[in-house]
Design goal:
This protein is of the alpha+beta class and 236 residues long. It contains two helices and 18 strands. A hairpin with a 2-residue loop joins strand 11 and strand 12. Helix 1 packs antiparallel against helix 2.
Amino acid sequence: MDAAGYVTLSRQSGLMREMQVVANNIANLSTTGFRREGVIFSEHVARLPEGPSLSMANGNARVVDLSQAGLTQTGGSFDFAIQGEGFFLIETPQGQELTRAGSFTPSAEGELVNPDGHRLLDAGGAPVFVPPGAGPVGLAPDGTLSAGGAPLARIGLWQPVDPLSLRHQSGTSFTAGEVAPAEGATVLQGFLEESNVDPVSEIARMVTVQRAYELGQSFLDKEDERVRGVIQTLGR
């Protein structure tokens, strides 16, 4: 395969990854706290033994869209939504992770856990505990959780020191290198944040990526026909 074929294949590989990311975004249109992702293309220049250098596309880097999504009122005592920047901190078997999905329920022990059973952590990194039968649960905008008028804990809001270190793990969970308290954010009780995926823009992007991939495939097909024609001509 000549240089043009390698360049096109590298571009096709990146477009395939972008199509997978876009499809995942569309599949999570209704997922609470989901953050859309995109693919960043970069240029990889390789030095050839003879002739000019070879420039290839690299579409491995992913970027997370941290823009605020809409809020849905649920009225649930343990449904929390973040207004502004920041994430909830949860404890998983793989370590601490960040999430914007704020649907929690008390476990049998009284600890607040998400639907996957991961514990919600407070501003000090300890599990948030609500004693059974403690009375009506209230949440102040600064994250202070109270029951029966008595404060219990302050839910921590965190954000990565380096936004580029944010890595999507599974569902709505992320990992980051170093995290710091989020400033200026508020927590609302009885609300859940929606997915920040815009279906119209995602479908438009899917069409654009698909057309670009088809053009690349057409070029590869024509290049294959050209090579076959040369081989047949020389073999006569």
